């Protein structure tokens, strides 16, 4: 049974009621107080205080202060008037029960409304936060796009300036070269004129000279002292002699040449020219250095070193089109295909490199070892361990001191043995 708290005091004005409830020795929290517009309850088990108020109050603005063992209520009236008493008088139990239930229902409805209001407020705050975040992200995205556009314009201007400088430099070189060629031509012309002037005998009529008599015996001299003046003959007329030689590509004489080797060289050159001119529409836009397989190989090697394997493959492809007889092009392209997981292409390029690295000589040992290892690696990644082991053993025959290849070959043997045991 609850213990009713009967001791209390109150006073009023036209607009408010001031209620003091002593609770000495009791620990009171806001959770112990329940108040609606016409119902007030303080529950501190086992103590209980309950009041059905005389008239409705503004429960929203009303307050309760706890301190010094007293709960002091300030209850603001909804209508300004003086109450005859604090609570409703002459109320039966049924009416009191109805008022209690009505107060609880109103409290639940009010709590539900507050919950809904908080939910709506929370959604509005969330929506506002989302909109603010989207605006910030849009502003940041726009700022980044502006920075990118500025950087792009800057790079474009620098590229155009560089191109203009290159064109000006090439134009200046061309003008300088033309000037040098003109000067050389003038110098050659002057030298030729000087040479012709030196070799030309002036036609001034008969040249007369007097031969002095030689000293010695007069009877033995071929010329006598009384030798008459003689007229020198006129210079011979100029003429051109045509000489025809056997047409040859090589500057050496035919008797010094090796016909078989020269024909082989000419055949290879013709094949190379056919390869270059096979698709002239694609190659005519290339620069001169880009038509050089060695330059393309160095460029592709740098791309491979930076991890740009696809671009390196494209450079090697063009180099192979220009010259398909260089084994290093296939060997390096096989390494790129291994990085890109193009395993069948890596096997094809390694096999082509081995085919071109014949006959086996000490100078191409390192290249042959790389070709066997790369082809063996591709076989192993395709789970063709037997073929891969054969290539690793071939590499070991060439370089038996290579511990890395020996260790990898041993791992492949263990894999083959494990596969055989599982089967």
Summarize the structure.
The chain has helices spanning 93-199, 259-276, 280-283, 293-305, 309-322, 327-339, 343-356, 365-381, 385-398, 403-422; strands spanning 3-4, 9-12, 16-22, 33-35, 39-44, 47-52, 63-67, 70-76, 208-209, 230-231.
Please characterize this protein's 3D structure.
- This is Dynein axonemal assembly factor 4.
- InterPro entries: CS_dom (IPR007052), CS_DYX1C1 (IPR037894), Dynein_assembly_factor_4 (IPR052004), HSP20-like_chaperone (IPR008978), TPR-like_helical_dom_sf (IPR011990), TPR_rpt (IPR019734).
- The protein is built from ten helices and ten strands.
- It has about 425 residues and is of the alpha+beta class.
- The chain has three domains: about 90 residues, Immunoglobulin-like; about 90 residues; about 130 residues, Serine Threonine Protein Phosphatase 5, Tetratricopeptide repeat (Alpha Horseshoe), CATH 1.25.40.10.
- Helix 7 runs antiparallel to helix 8.
- The chain is elongated.
- The relative contact order is 0.03.
- About 5% of the residues have low confidence.
């Amino acid at each position: 049974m609850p213990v009713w708290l009967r001791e209390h005091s109150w006073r009023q004005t036209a607009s408010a009621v001031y209620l003091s409830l002593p609770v000495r020795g009791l620990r009171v929290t806001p959770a112990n107080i329940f108040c609606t517009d016409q119902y007030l309850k303080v529950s501190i088990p086992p103590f209980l205080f309950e009041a059905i108020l005389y008239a409705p109050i503004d429960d929203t603005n009303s307050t309760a202060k706890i301190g010094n063992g007293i709960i002091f209520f300030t209850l603001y009236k909804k209508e300004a008037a003086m109450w005859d008493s604090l609570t409703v008088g002459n109320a039966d139990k049924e009416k009191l029960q109805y008022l209690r239930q009505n107060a609880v229902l109103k409290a639940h409805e009010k709590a539900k409304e507050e919950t809904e209001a908080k939910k709506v407020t929370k959604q509005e705050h969330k929506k506002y936060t989302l909109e603010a975040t989207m605006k910030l992200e849009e502003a940041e995205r726009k700022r980044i796009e502006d920075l990118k556009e500025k950087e792009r314009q800057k790079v474009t201007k620098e590229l155009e300036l560089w191109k203009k400088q290159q064109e000006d430099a090439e134009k200046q070189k061309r003008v300088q070269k033309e000037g040098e060629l003109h000067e050389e031509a003038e110098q050659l012309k002057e030298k030729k004129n000087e040479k012709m002037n030196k070799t030309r005998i002036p036609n001034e009529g008969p040249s007369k000279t007097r031969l002095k008599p030689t000293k010695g015996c007069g009877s033995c001299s071929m010329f006598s002292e009384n030798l008459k003046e003689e007229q020198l003959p006129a210079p011979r007329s100029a003429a051109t002699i045509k000489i025809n030689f056997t047409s040859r590509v090589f500057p050496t004489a035919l008797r010094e040449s090796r016909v078989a080797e020269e024909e082989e060289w000419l055949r290879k050159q013709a094949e190379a020219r056919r390869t270059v001119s096979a698709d002239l529409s694609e190659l005519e836009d290339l620069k001169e250095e880009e038509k050089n397989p060695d330059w393309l190989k160095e460029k592709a090697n740098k791309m491979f070193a930076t991890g740009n394997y696809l671009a390196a493959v494209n450079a090697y492809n063009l180099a192979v089109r220009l010259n398909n007889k260089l084994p290093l092009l296939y060997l390096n392209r096989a390494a790129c295909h291994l990085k890109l997981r193009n395993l069948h292409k890596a096997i094809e390029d390694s096999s082509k490199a081995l085919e071109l690295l014949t006959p086996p000589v000490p100078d191409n040992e390192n290249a042959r070892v790389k070709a066997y290892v790369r082809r063996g690696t591709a076989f192993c990644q395709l789970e063709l361990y037997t073929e891969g082991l054969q290539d690793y053993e071939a590499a070991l025959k060439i370089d038996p001191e290579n511990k890395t290849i020996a260790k990898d070959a041993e791992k492949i043997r263990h894999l083959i043995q494990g596969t055989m045991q599982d089967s």
